[in-house]
Amino acid sequence: MARSVWKGPFVDGYLLKKAEKSRGSGRNEIIKIWSRRSTILPQFVGLTFGVYNGQKFIPVLVTENMIGHKFGEFSPTRTFYGHASDKKAKRA
Amino acid sequence: MRFCVGAFAGAHGVRGLVKLKSFTGEPDAILRYRPLTDEVGGREFQVTLVSTAKDCFVVKVDGVTTREGAEALASVRVYAPRAALPATEEDEFYHADLIGLAAETTDGAPLGQVAGLYDFGAGDVLEIAVPGGKPLLVPFTRAAVPQVDMAGKRVVIDLPVEA
């Protein structure tokens, strides 16, 4: 069952404070967070979070199309890395 | 330089057909790369697609006509030459090219070696193996990786500050 709209998106309070502080600093920062359950809000776009997966902090660069998803979706806890083969990476 | 594009997964039937598992971005790209060889390049495989099976292709390999011959190929990795890959766009790099490059800080201090590249849905992430330390994960962005010097075989990392 979907979350009631009147409640608004869930986000841990401390994330908003950290995001605001990081945006103000203007440095190349990774915001370490443990809150995988928090929803990605529009004010997080452009920031890089280090989302804990139980072992390490996976860098998550927030883009517009990630709004509404949870942070945990981008930091897998069990990973099959696959093969490099002919895969390409584009520098954002 | 060669890169791994797949592996033989075992025999199919009794007439020497072999199952071929593809590791390429588009699975059928493996059938376009030529020549396919083993790891050292000592043996060349001429493959012809016969049919597709679950998660793999069924191919005929020239010179293999019996089930025993096909079974002997099981788990042999298949490699293609780096030159067979098409050119990339600006700021686009093949994982196979980046893995193994030396990583340096902006001051020129050695940091380690690129051990892997991952994409978990939020942009590419560079894994740097640090000798005697924990591996570093760095977002593959212009801010964090300002320079990729393919000729010099190094990447420059501007380590992000942790907040």
**Most strands sheet of chain A:** 3 strands, mixed
The CATH topology of the domain at 9-15 and 25-77 in chain A comes to 30s Ribosomal Protein S19, Chain A
Instruction: Provide the number of structural domains of chain B.
Output: 2
Helix/strand/pairing category of chain A: alpha+beta
Return the string of H and E elements of chain B: EEEEEEHEEHEEEEEEE
Give the spatial strand order of the biggest sheet of chain B.
12-11-10-9-14-13
Q: Would you state the CATH class of the domain at 9-15 and 25-77 in chain A?
A: Alpha Beta
Strand order of the largest sheet of chain A: 1-2-3
How would you name the CATH homologous superfamily of the domain at 9-15 and 25-77 in chain A? Ribosomal protein S19/S15
The helix/strand order of chain A is HEEEE
Q: Could you report the average pLDDT of chain A, rounded to the nearest whole number?
A: 90
End-to-end separation of chain A in angstroms reads 36 Å
Annotation, overall tally of beta strands of chain B:
15
Mind telling me which CATH architecture of the largest domain in chain B this is?
Beta Barrel
CATH superfamily of the largest domain in chain B: RimM
Tell me the Rg of chain A in angstroms: 15 Å
Multimeric state of these chains?
Answer: heterodimer
Largest interface: A-B, 38 and 47 residues
Shape of chain B: elongated
